[in-house]
Amino acid sequence: MGFGESVLASALGAGSNSWTRQQLIESVPRTGVLLLVSFIFAVCCLAAYLERYRRLVRHINCIPGPATLPIIGNALLINADREELFNRIIASRKLYGRRQGITRIWNGMTPYVLISQAQAVEKILSSTKNIEKGRDYEFLQPWLGTGLLTSPASKWQHRRKILTPTFHFRILSDFVEVFNKQAAVLAGKLATELDNAAGFDCVRYITLCSLDIICETAMGCPVYAQQQSDSEYVRAHEKIGEIMLNRLQKLWLHPDIVFRCTSQYREQQKCLDILHKFSYRMITERRSIIRAGHKPLDENNNSETVAGRKQLAFLDLLIEASDEGRLLSDTDIREEVDTFILGGHDTTATAIAWTLFLLGTDPSVQERALGEIEHVMGDGPRDRYPTMRELNEMRYLEACIKEGLRLYPSIPIIGRRLTEDVRLAEHVLPAGTNAVIVVYQLHRDPAVFPNPDRFNPDHFLGDGQRPRHPFAYIPFSAGPRNCIGQKFGALEAKAVLVAVLRQYRVEAVDRREDLTLYGELVLRSKGGLRIRVTKRN
Q1: What letter does residue 69 receive in the DSSP assignment?
Q2: Which of 135, 159, 355, 458 could bridge to 404 as Cys pair (CB 3.0-4.6 Å)?
Q3: What is the 3-state secondary structure (H, E, C) of 424-486?
Q4: Of 165-174, 183-192, 228-237, 456-465, which gets the smallest average pLDDT?
C-alpha cells in the first residue's frame, strides 16, 4: 500500500489505530477551516459577480454603439480634448441612435448608455428607485463630500427634507435684495467695456457676480469676487473644476493610487484646503452670530433678524438642524454649503450668460424683453431695483431665459447609476448601468420644438407653447431628484438681466454657428461668449 493510500485508510478508519471522524476534524487547525470557508465564499461571490457582469455585457451590447477594444472599450474615443469629446457625444446619436435616441459606449469595462428621447428619459428620471447619481459624480466628492448633489439615495432623502424649507418663497423674497445689489455692481463693471468695439467675454463678469450672490445668500458673507477677481478663493473655485473634469476624461487617472502620484492631485489638495477652510470659517462665524442673538424661523418660514440683520436661511437652517452636532456635524454642513455654492454659482451664471448672448443675436427679442421690463417697472430711474413681485410678472423675460436653457442647458448631461433593471423599448438596461441623459440633444428634438436651432422664446408663451412630453424639457433635471434651487436660479437670472438690459443695448460679436461648445461642469463656448455693449439713453 502506498503512502497516500495508507493516509486515506487511516483517515477513513482502517486498522485498530484508526481515527474517528471527530478526531480528524479536531486535528485540522481552525485557521485552516476559516481559510477554506473564506475561499469558498470568495469563489461564490466572484461567480455571482461574473454572472451579473456577463448579463450586463449581453444586454448593453444589444444597444447600438461604436466598436470596442478588449479591456479598454471605447476609452480611446473618449480620450479627446474637451471640445472634441462633446462633439463625439453629440455625434453618437446621429451615427448609432437616430431612431430610438439610445446609444452605448464603454469607458474601459464600465458601460454608459446615452439617452436623448423624452419617453426613455422619463423612465430613468421618474423612478423612485433609480435615484443614485452616476459613477462620474464620485470625482466631485473630494470637494463636496456626500452633499445633496453627490449623496447616495438613503442620505439624499434625509437631507432633501431638511433643505427644502430653505427655498420657501418668503425666504427667496429676502434674497432678491442681494440679487439686485450684486447685479448693480455687475452693471457698473460693464461700463468699463463701453469703448471696446472688438467685444468682450461676458461669462467672466457674470460668473463673478453669481459667485458674490451665492456666497452672500448661502453664508451671509460677501466674498467681493467682482472687486477682487484674483483672490485665492475665486481662483480655487475656477481651478478645481478643471482638475476634476480632466481626471474624469482620462481613464488611467481614475484609480486613486495613480491620481495621488500626479501634480494635479497636489494642485487639487491646495484648492480644497482654500475652499474648505473658507466654508468652515463661515460656519463658525455664523454659529457665533446665531448664539449671540437668535430668533428662529416662524411656522410660516418668515425670516427673522439675527443680531440686527435678516436671517439667511440656508446656513442658519443647517446649523439649527445640526442639534449641536448630533444630527449634522460641521462636515455635513460644509458639504451642503459647498454643494449649494457649486450648484448655484456656475449653473446660474452660465444660464444668464447664454441668455444675454442670445438676446444680443436678435435685437427684436431684446427690445421686446426690455419693453416688458419698462412696462412692469413703470417710469422712474433706470437704476431702481425690481421687487420680487415685479420679477415674477416678467413673463417674456422668463421665456427668454427658458429658451436659452433649452438651446444651451447649463448642465448638458445628467447621470444616474441604475440599481434595478429598466426596459427601454426592446432594450434592457441592467442594474449597474450608468444612464446618461444628454439634455443638449433632448432639447433639440424637432418633433417637440419645430425649427429647434432657432432662438424663439415664444416656445414658452401662448400659442407657441405646444403640448409636449413633460420630460422633453428638463434644464433643472426632473423627477424626485430634480434641482432644489431652480426658483432661486430663475429669480437671480431675471434680476441680473433686468440690471443689464435697462442700462445697456447688447450685441453678440460671434455667430452662433461659429461657436465651439464643450462641457466642463457646465456647458461652455471655447473663447467665451463675446458681446458689445452700448449705453441706453
Answers
A1: B
A2: 355
A3: ECCEEECCCCEEEEEHHHHCCCCCCCCCCCCCCHHHHCHHHCCCCCCCCCCECECHHHCCCCH
A4: 165-174
In sequence order, what are the residues at sequence separation of 6 or more whose Cβ sits closer than 8 angstroms to the Cβ of residue 43? none
Contact 403/457 with Cβ under 8 angstroms?
Answer: yes
CA dist., res. 76 & res. 90, Å (int) = 17
Asked whether residue 421 is domain-assigned, the answer is no
E strands in 94-150:
102-107, 110-115, 132-133
- Beta strands 305-306 and 200-201 are unpaired
- Give 56's contacts (C-beta < 8 A, 6+ positions apart): 111, 430, 432, 433
Instruction: Report the distance separating Cα 254 and Cα 55, nearest Å.
Output: 25
Identify whether 322 is part of a domain.
yes
Domain of 278, CATH number, reads 1.10.630.10
Q: Using alpha carbons, list the distances in angstroms from residue 346 to 367, 396, 524.
A: 27, 24, 10
In angstroms, rounded to a whole number, what is the distance separating the alpha carbons of residues 410 and 265?
27
Domain that holds residue 258: 139-413+483-535
How far apart are the C-alpha atoms of 456 and 404, rounded to whole Å? Answer: 9
Assigned C-alpha cell, 65? 454603439
CB 394 within 8 A of CB 498: yes
Query: How many other CB atoms sit within 10 Å of the CB of residue 234?
Result: 20
What pLDDT shows up at residue 88? Answer: 87
**What predicted TM-score, i.e. pTM, was given to this entire model?**
0.86
Q: What radius of gyration, in Å, describes the C-alpha atoms of the chain?
A: 28
14: buried, middle or exposed (CB in 10 Å: 19+, 13-18, 0-12)? middle
- Chain centroid, CA 411 distance in Å: 6
Q: List Cα–Cα distances, 467 to 79, 344, 371, in angstroms.
A: 40, 30, 28
Answer for the pair 426, 395: CB distance below 8 angstroms, yes or no: no
Mean pLDDT of the chain: 85
Q: What is the model's pLDDT at position 241?
A: 81
215 is in an annotated binding site: no
How far are the Cα atoms of 390, 399, 407, 423, 527 from residue 451, in angstroms, in the given order?
A: 32, 17, 11, 31, 27
Residue 504 in domain: yes
| Number of other residues whose CB lies within 10 A of the CB of residue 322 | 18
* Higher-scoring residue by pLDDT: 92, 277: 277
Residues pairing with 518 in the sheet: 524
C-alpha dihedral over 439, 441, 442, 448, to 10 degrees? 150
Point out which residues pair with 111 in neighbouring strands. Answer: 106
Q: Quick check: is 199 in a domain?
A: yes
Q: What do you get for the CA distance between the two ends of the chain, in Å?
A: 114
